[in-house]
Amino acid sequence: MEGNSASTRTISSGLASAAARLAIIAAFVLAGSSAAAWPPCDDFVWAEVENGTVTVHHDGAFYNCCTDGFDYEVSLAGAVIRITETEILTNPCYCLCCMDNFVDIDDVAPGEYTIVFAWYDYETDAWVEWSLGIVVPDAGQSGGAALASSGTSGCYDPTGASGGEAERATWGSVKARYHD
60 to each of 10, 23, 106, how far by Cα in Å? Predict the structure, then answer.
């Protein structure tokens, strides 16, 4: 009888330790999926003005790693410049990352403006608007305000893990693996 109870203890002990291992593995898997996620980005919208060109920056933007770029809708109504940033995705990847984007608006007439910058935020799952005021000095511009150019840094590590400023990378090999 003692042999059976020892055997039973061993079996239940083995089951308990297997359950404990399973619980630990499950905890790592669940924690791993959030720990493996890209660190949160800190959206920051700011603008600079030079010779009638307004450049609006969206730093720390959080978008799909395989974005095909961004579309910007720009409208001017009185003293409000409204800019909507929309991600272009043909073949999205199963990853998100931080990037710095910008858009240039040329030939903005002199004056004081409020910029309303809108984008879809994956972190909040909602459209977000950020407003800021600017002053455009007279540099001889005609005031025809037109979208001139835009660009993005591509994905980067917002923690600056390499030691200095946040490291920028193209993510080419990672993108290629997730594209198919």
Answer: 55, 36, 24
Q: Which domain holds residue 93?
A: 44-179
The neighbour count for residue 43, using CB atoms within 10 Å, is 18
Indicate the average pLDDT of the chain.
76
The mean per-residue pLDDT over the stretch 140-144 comes to: 89
pLDDT tens for 75-113 read: 999 999 999 999 999 999 988 899 999 999 999 999 999
| pTM of the predicted protein model | 0.68
Whether 19 maps to a domain, the answer reads: no
Start-end of H helices in the chain: 2-35, 172-179
Instruction: In whole angstroms, give the CA distance from residue 52 to residue 72.
Output: 19
Structurally, the chain folds into a number of domains equal to: 1
- CB 65, CB 171: distance < 8 Å: yes
User: Taking CA 160 as the corner, what is the angle to CA 39 and CA 96, rounded to the nearest 5 degrees?
Assistant: 30
Q: Within a domain: residue 33?
A: no
Residue-wise pLDDT tens digits, 35-57: 344 557 889 999 999 999 999 99
The one-letter amino acid at 144: G
How many CB atoms are closer than 10 A to CB 90?
9
